[in-house]
Design a protein that fits this description.
Elements lengths: L7 E6 L11 H15 L3 E6 H4 L2 H10 L4 E3 L16 H6 L1 E3 L46 E4 L12 E3 L19 E5 L4 H13 L4 E5 L4 H15 L4 E3 L5 H9 L4 E4 L9 H8 L4 E4 L5 H4 L2 E3 L2 H12 L12 H12 L16
Parallel strand pairs: 1-2, 1-3, 4-5, 5-6, 7-8, 7-10, 8-9, 10-11, 11-12
């Protein structure tokens, strides 16, 4: 007798799939989440973004295959304007994972708290509130929302769950070496600031191992910038592309610090979480969403951050490793896929310890 699955889910992925050298946080999350869901008995599959562009065809597939939940990428046309109103059955099965905040913040900085819902979170069935900055993201529909952390701006959405990502796809190791290089990620600050960062660190004789936020224009510009510094004979090792599943030691092995200057609202940040998992301390700018969870050193400005790094910030201890693993994350997502939410009125799940 065929075993009944614990739910059926479809996840949208970029057309490049999982073989692209620009694999980033979205791919990391979906790869490990789907693998863990399958281990938990959920039938989970993928469809490519080009297939998802035809919303009517996607809706027909979801209906035909009796899919319980579909997870579009944040760029999906399903989230544009009133497109969702034409496809109520698809919309009711849609789960949006807020792995970035582009729907509420065009520059990817932290969205402001809602003047309506910050104190009194939205509940299912309540009328759409005037003055809510998330109105354009249609929080009044039946679509389910998953946030990686509970913050004031998430309270606008009545069908919400809070489920973090995990980092146990890399082993719990202690790769820290206070005499080793600083691993520097570039691509999340302006190029002029990246230039100042490189100049100050190399000028002080700090050996660097550079990785990039490959999806951003700033990341592409930073590549050219680093090549120019290498040409000047400065001590910079470049990891242009890597697969963290197999290359974790090449990225973080023997590192003194992971330095991540970012002006974005980092909803999770896998690189920071992976560094902590591997025993390497993290230094970041400001609050940055979830970055304080992983950062041993923070400063409000780039120059302040560099001052602290150069004044001894390479001799820090890492933050405690996250206690939530992919198995627990998948269990929480399985509940969302089956439509289980805490009383239908508030966030399910919680935070990693």
């Amino acid at each position: 007798m065929t075993e009944v699955p614990a739910g059926r889910a479809l996840f949208e992925i970029y057309d490049e799939g999982f073989d692209s050298p620009s694999w980033g946080g979205v791919e990391t999350a979906l790869w490990h989440l789907v693998r863990s869901l399958r281990e938990a008995g959920v039938e989970a599959g993928f469809y490519r973004a080009s297939e998802g562009a035809d919303l009517e065809a996607l809706a027909a597939r979801v209906e035909h295959d009796r899919v319980d939940a579909v997870f579009p990428l944040v760029e999906s046309e399903l989230f544009e304007g009133a497109a969702w109103r034409r496809l109520p059955e698809l919309h009711a099965r849609t789960v949006r994972i807020w792995h970035d905040v582009s729907r509420l913040s065009a520059d990817l900085s932290e969205p402001p708290p809602c003047p309506v819902h910050a104190a009194a979170p939205a509940v299912p069935g309540a009328p759409v509130a005037d003055g809510c900055p998330a109105r354009g993201a249609h929080p009044d529909g039946p679509m389910r929302e998953v946030f990686l952390r509970e913050l004031p701006w998430t309270h606008c959405f009545p069908h919400r769950s809070v489920i973090p990502w995990a980092a146990d796809h890399v082993p719990a190791k202690d790769l820290y070496d206070p005499s080793g290089p600083v691993v520097l990620q570039l691509g999340k600050i302006d190029t002029v600031d990246a230039e100042r960062c490189l100049r100050r660190l190399t000028g002080a004789g700090v050996p660097l191992r550079v990785i990039f936020a490959t999806w951003s224009r700033r990341g592409r510009e930073a590549r050219e910038l680093v090549r120019a510094h290498q040409g000047a004979g400065r001590p910079i090792e470049v990891l242009d592309a890597y697969d963290i599943r197999t290359d974790w030691e090449r990225v973080f092995g023997g590192a003194a610090l992971f330095l991540l200057p970012s002006v974005f609202h980092e909803t999770f940040n896998f690189a920071a979480a992976e560094a902590v998992q591997l025993g390497v301390p993290v230094a970041t700018l400001g609050e940055g969403g979830n970055l304080p969870r992983f950062a041993s050193l923070r400063a409000p400005t780039l120059d302040g951050l560099l001052d602290r790094v150069l004044a001894g910030g390479r001799r820090l201890g890492p933050k405690p490793r996250p206690t939530t693993g992919w198995r627990e994350v998948a269990a929480r997502y399985a509940g969302v896929i089956r439509g289980e939410r805490a009383g239908q009125s508030g966030p399910e799940g919680g935070h990693d310890g």
